[in-house]
Design brief:
Layout: H1 10-28, H2 33-41, H3 44-57, E1 64-68, E2 74-78, H4 81-98, H5 103-107, H6 112-138, H7 151-163, H8 166-176, H9 180-205, H10 208-215, H11 220-236, H12 242-275, H13 280-285, H14 292-307, H15 320-337, H16 348-372, H17 376-387, H18 393-400, H19 405-435
Helix pairs in contact: 1-3, 1-15, 3-15, 4-12, 4-14, 4-15, 6-7, 6-16, 6-17, 6-19, 7-8, 7-9, 7-19, 8-19, 9-16, 9-17, 12-14, 14-19, 16-17, 17-18, 17-19, 18-19
Length: 436
């Protein structure tokens, strides 16, 4: 069956995505009329995500598809735009946004960032089994299945993804041996529910002041960090030249190139080291160390932090973080491209489980944020560091301010480390819930 979208050439699709971003920025710049009122409700970053999602839903573009070759064989084709954005533009953006960071001010944000991160983790751990118990009351067959077809085994991969990331998700598939033929359904739930939740968080950013007022949150530490970065930017501000931009790109992509080089060796080394472990449990717990993406993000961030103590940070005055923000918006558009809104209706049973699960995660975050008076920033980034990982936590963080992207990265990297352990705890509870 040929499921090719209308546009299959990545160069053309990239042009369409850039036109979409241009439209968003142009309309967002309007100070009067419809668009001025519209963007007071809906953030531009959300529109950068949503417009590509509409194109995918209408069949204009697609992240992957099947086509029939001249030999009559069904061939799977995958767009490389998200891969390029996440492996090249994302780490470069993190480097350029971290150049001007004040590490001391980051630590001065206090313990609430970690509390909200762990609250998000606990929400995922308990959300799975509670969702199974609730859905089993109305539709036992939705959460049923036997042996390797058992739904709880499939949901274990969601737990791995939503606490850690792709490496943790794969580890859970390996541990619990869910039927590979049905695994696509779980990936589908992951994409739909996680992306819808991210969209809700982005919309919330447009109303962060009202939310913070309701939470009675103290945002002074966040504002102090933003103010420090803004003052530094003004201090070193200059009229950027072509040389400035070339050096900015050299710093960003030079770091990314080095990070890819080292990540290749470290990923291979830890893959062999972890594979040599006698205990299967420990092999899966530390499987994230074999992920090149984990090392790519970690190394890029470490180098960026080191550069923030050098004269390289002065390139913030020439627009380093703005260039980084461009890369982030392109990444957001490619993430939106992965979202087919029509998919929501394809497997409503599993989607309902995912929605209930995510609602418990969200509810617990809101409750704890209210109790400790944590700002919406900590709630949103704490959630995305779990659910979205290193690809989307910096996006949500930078939507508050480019200087805050590093907070999202640090928490997301921490999520990789605890992802498999947390997911195993969640799966044990889901198995118990399935037998009640």
């Amino acid at each position: 069956m040929d499921t090719s979208p209308f546009l299959t050439n990545d160069a053309i699709v990239f042009g369409l995505l850039m036109l979409s971003l241009g439209f968003v920025f142009y309309t967002e710049s309007k100070t009067t009329g419809f668009w001025s009122k519209f963007y007071k409700i809906v953030p531009g970053l959300f529109m950068a995500y949503f417009i590509p999602a509409i194109f995918t839903t209408l069949g204009v573009i697609s992240p992957d598809w099947e086509t029939v070759s001249t030999a009559g064989e069904v061939v799977k084709v995958k767009s490389q735009l998200y891969y390029v954005s996440s492996r090249f533009l994302l780490p470069a953006a993190l480097v350029l946004m971290t150049l001007s960071i004040d590490l001391k001010a980051i630590f001065n944000l206090g313990s609430k960032a970690l509390i909200m991160f762990f609250t998000g983790t606990v929400g995922i751990v308990i959300g799975g089994p509670i969702a199974i118990l609730l859905i089993s009351i109305f539709s036992p067959e939705t959460v049923g299945g036997a042996d390797f077809d058992a739904v709880w085994r499939g949901l274990s991969t969601l737990a791995g993804s939503w606490i850690g990331g792709g490496a943790n998700q794969t580890a859970m598939l390996e541990i619990y041996k869910y039927n590979p033929a049905k695994y696509g359904g779980m990936v589908f739930v992951d994409i739909v529910v996680a992306n819808v939740w991210m969209a809700i968080l982005l919309i919330g950013i447009g109303r962060k002041d009202k939310i913070n007022k309701w939470l009675k949150a103290d945002t002074s530490a966040i504002e102090e960090l933003k103010e420090k970065v803004s003052k530094f930017t003004q201090k070193v501000k200059r009229n950027p030249t072509l040389t400035n931009f070339m050096i900015i790109l050299a710093i960003g992509f030079g770091t990314v190139g080095f990070a890819h080089f080292v990540a290749g060796y470290l990923g291979a080394f830890f893959n062999e080291t972890v594979a040599a472990m006698e205990s299967a449990t420990w092999r899966n717990v530390f499987s994230f160390l074999g992920s090149k993406f984990f090392w790519l993000i970690s190394i890029s961030t470490i180098i960026a932090v080191i550069l923030s103590f050098t004269k390289a940070k002065n390139y913030e005055g020439a627009g380093a973080s703005k260039v980084g923000s461009i890369f982030i918006y392109i990444l957001v558009a490619t993430i939106g491209m992965k979202m087919d809104l029509a998919m929501i209706f394809d497997n409503l049973g599993l989607i309902v489980i995912g929605v209930v699960w995510m609602s418990i995660h969200a509810g617990l975050l809101i409750l704890v944020a209210k109790l400790i008076k944590a700002p919406y920033f900590f709630l949103a980034v704490g959630s995305q560091a779990n659910v979205g990982g290193a690809a989307s936590a910096p996006i949500v963080a930078s939507a508050f301010h480019p200087s805050l992207a590093t907070v999202g990265v640090l928490l997301a990297v921490f999520g990789y480390a605890i992802g498999t352990v947390g997911a195993i705890a969640c799966t044990i509870l889901m198995e118990l819930a399935s037998t009640l």
